[in-house]
Amino acid sequence: MEYRDLTNNWQFKQRVPDVELNTDFATEKDWLPASVPGAVHLDLLAAGQIPEPFYGLNEQQLQWIGERDWLYRTTFEITAAELSQAELDLCFDGLDTYATVWLNGVQILKSNNMFVPQRVSIKSQVRIGSNDLHIVFESALLWGQHLEEQYGKLPLWNGDSSRLYVRKAQYHYGWDWGPVFMTAGLWRAVRLEAYSARVADVHCPYEVADDLASALLPVKIEVEERAADSVQEVHVALYAPSGELVAEKTQTLRGEKSVETQLEVQRPELWWPHTHGQQPLYRLVTTLRGPRGEADRHELRLGLRRLRLVQHTLQDAPGTSFYFEINNTPIFCGGSNWIPADSFMPRISRERYRRWLQLAVDGNQNMLRVWGGGIYEDPAFYELCDELGLLVWQDFMFACGLYPAHEEFQQSVRAEAESAVRQLRHHPSIVLWSGNNEDYAIAESRGVSDPQITDHFEQTQFPARAIYEQLLPAVCADLDSTRPYWPGSPYGGERSSDPTVGDIHVWSVWHGGLPYQDYPKLAGRFISEFGMQAFPVLETIREFAPAEELYPQSRTLDYHNKADGGPGLMAPYLVNNVRVPADLEGQVYATQFVQSEALSAAIRGWRRLWQGPGREYTSGALVWQLNDCYPVMSWALVDYQLRIKPAYYSVARELAPLVVGLHRQSSDSIAIWAVNGDAADIQLELELRTVTLAGEVLSEQRRSVTLTGNRSSELDIIQQAQKDQEIVQARLWRDGVVVARASLWSEPYKYLTLPDPQVNIVRLDDQHIRVSATRPAKGVWLDAGAEVKWSDNMLDIVPGDPQTITASGLGNQPIQVRWLDK
C-alpha cells in the first residue's frame, strides 16, 4: 500500500450562478489559495476577503457565505508506478456537506453527509502526468430549506429548522452558546492510495474474563484484494504496552475476503479511567503478506478493560441505578460535556486537543460526553482520551429536534453510523453509544412521545424513534457488541425527566429559574447535563470587543451571549446572590463567582448520594460544558482561548479523591459527610471550627473518622443555629496534612457585610505561594496572567488555615487578588 497526501495546491472561488459550471471552473479569474483540511471562512480570512469572524458583530455581515456555492480545484500528478498498481483510490475523510466531485471532467462522486468518509476507485479515470480534480460545494442552508419545503417543517430548539434535514454539524446553524457559520469545504484530509491488496477493516471485540485474570481477543479482518495472489497470508501480532510480543497468529489466505482468528492474554494489564489506575495500551498489528513481501499493514491500539452499565434495583429508593463499572469497580463519573472546540474545526490541532483534555484530567474529571450537535471528533481526540484515561459518553449526531425518518434520510444515517462505529469501536475510552441529545425531551414537550407505541415510528409525529430505537441499536449490535447503547440523553422511565431511571438533564436551574441552592434536591441517577452561565475571562472579552463596548450590557457583550434571553436569565442569579457591581471587571467576577458556587453546590450534593453497593443513588454529574467554540458568555468552565474560569477549580475540588461536605439542612442543624474516591478504606481526622467574620474562633473540635472506599459516608449532624456573622469550616487531616476542606457561609451573600479579610500572600519560591487571611475571605481569585497554571484557585480562606498553592510559570509575575465584595 502506498499513500500520498493530496492536501496541497488547492484553490477556491465563489460559484458564479449564471455561468456554466465547466466555464466557471476553467476561468483563471477570482481563484484564491485554499487550505485542505480547511473551511471556506478560513480561506476567505487568509485571503483578506473578510474580517475576523469572531470579532465584535462581524458574524452578522458574514452570513452570505453560507448562502453561496463554492468551487475548489487542484491538480495532482500520477506516476507510471502508481498507475501500474492494481488499484488507485481517492479517499476523502470529510466533505462539508453537499459535494459533487469531478476527476478529469468525469463526475466520480456525490456526497450529502459530512460525517461519511468517501472512497472512490479512480484507476480508470486517471492518466500519467497531470490530473484535474474539481469539487463544487452547494449551500447546505439552501439545500436544507429545499428539503424542508418538500417534507415539511419540524419542531426544534436552536438554529434554523432546516438543519434537521441536513447531515451536517448542527451547531453550525447556531446554538445558545455558538454563532451561525455555515461552513463548506474539505474539512478533513484527502489522499491517494495505490495498492494490490489492503486491510479494509480490523475488529477486535475482546472480552476480559470476569475474574480479570485473562482476556480473549477475537480478531476479524476484512481484506480487499485487487490482484490475484497478491496476498498469501495474514499475520496478527499483539504487543504489550512494554513493546514485548505477547501473542501472534498466521493464517493462509485462498482468496477469502474475511479472516477470523483469536488471541489470548493471561494476566492482562488493565486499562482504567485515570481516577482509578493506569492506561496501558496494547498494539494489535495486522500484516498482509504476498509473494513480494508486505502488501499492507494495519495497527490498532487497544486498552483491555471489562465494562458494564449497571441498572439494578436500589435500597430504599425507587427506580434503578445507572452506573458504569470498569474492571468490576463501580465508577462515579464526574466530568463535563464536550462541544466542538472551534466553529471552524480544521483549526483544532492535536496539541489544542491535548491542552483541553489535560485540563479535564488536571481538574479531576474522568468522563466527557461528546454532545450530539457537534461532530464525531478527530481521531486525535479519542487517542488522547485513551492515553489520559478519560471515559467518553459518545452521542450520535442528533440534537434538540424532531428529525425526519424517510427512507433516504435513514440510508444516510445508517452509512454515517456504520462509519462512526467502525472508526471508534476500538477505543477503550468510549463506554457508551447514545442516540441523541434531548430529542425525547422536545417530543415530550410537544406531546408526541408515546412509550406505548413500539413500532412503525415513521408513521408517528416522532418518526426518529425508528433511528434511535431500531436503526442505531442494530448498527451497534452488529458492529460493536462490546458496549452498551442508550437511546438518548436524557432518557429513561415514562419520561426523559424521570430522576429514578437512566440519565437526566437538570435545567430547572438556569432555564427554569430555580435557585442554584436547590441543586442537591434535583438529583437523578445520572445527571448528564447541568450548568450556570458566566462571562469569559476579561482578557478574552477585550480581544473580541471594541474598547468603546467594554461595559456591561453593551451591544457587543449582549451579542456574544447566544442564549435566548441570556442576559436576562443571568441577571436574577446575580441579583439574588451577590451585590451586583456596575463595572465590567466586577461583573465578570460576579458571574464567575455565582457559576463557581452553583456548580460546587450541585456536585457536592450529588456526589454525597454515591453511597456504595445498592445505594448508588447518583452515579454521575457532567457539567454543561467544558469548552467553547468561540468567545462567548456561556456555561463553559474554560473559555474559547483556553483561559480558565473560577468554576473549573471549584469543580476540581468537588471531584477530588477526598472531599468533605457541609449542608445546612435546617435553621439549626448541619449535616457533615465525606467522600473517599479511592478503593481502600482510610482513617482520617475530622476537624470542625466555627469562626466569626471578624476572625474570632468560637469553637474547635477534632475526632477520628473512617471513610469506606469508593463511596460517601455520613459523618454527623450537629445542632448549630444559622448566624450571618459565623461560618463553619470542616477539614480532613491525614498524617498532619489537610487533605480536604469545606466552609459553610450564610446565604445569600449579598446580605453579608464582609470586613476586609486582610488577605496575605507569601512567595515561597518562584512557583509556590502561601495564602492566608486574618478574617474569612470568600472567593479569593488569584491572577498572574493566562500563562500561569494554578494548582487551586477561587479559594475560601479561613483564619488559621493557610493554603499553599503551586503556580507553575509564576516567576516574578505580579499577582492580582480579588475576593467577594472587594
Automatic annotation (TrEMBL):
Top-level EC class, please?
Answer: hydrolase
The protein's location, in the record's own words, is: Lysosome; Secreted
User: What region holds the Mannosidase Ig/CBM-like domain?
Assistant: 669-751
Enzyme Commission designation: 3.2.1.25
Describe the reaction catalysed, as an equation: Hydrolysis of terminal, non-reducing beta-D-mannose residues in beta-D-mannosides
Which biological process annotations from GO are given for this protein?
carbohydrate metabolic process; glycoprotein catabolic process
The record places domain Beta-mannosidase Ig-fold at 754-808
Q: Which SUPFAM superfamilies match?
A: (Trans)glycosidases, beta-Galactosidase/glucuronidase domain, Galactose-binding domain-like
**Alphabetically ordered keywords of this record:** Glycoprotein, Glycosidase, Hydrolase, Lysosome, Secreted, Signal
Q: In which pathway does it act?
A: Glycan metabolism; N-glycan degradation
Q: What is its main location?
A: other
Residue ranges of the Glycoside hydrolase family 2 immunoglobulin-like beta-sandwich domain?
197-305
This entry carries the following GO cellular component terms, namely:
extracellular region; lysosome
- What molecular function terms (GO) are annotated for this protein? beta-mannosidase activity
Q: Does the keyword Signal apply?
A: yes
Q: Is Signal found in the keyword set?
A: yes
Q: What family does the Swiss-Prot or TrEMBL record give for this protein? A: Belongs to the glycosyl hydrolase 2 family. Beta-mannosidase B subfamily.
List the PANTHER family hit by this protein, alphabetically.
Answer: BETA-MANNOSIDASE (PTHR43730)
Quaternary structure and interacting proteins, as annotated: Homodimer.
Its recorded name reads Beta-mannosidase B
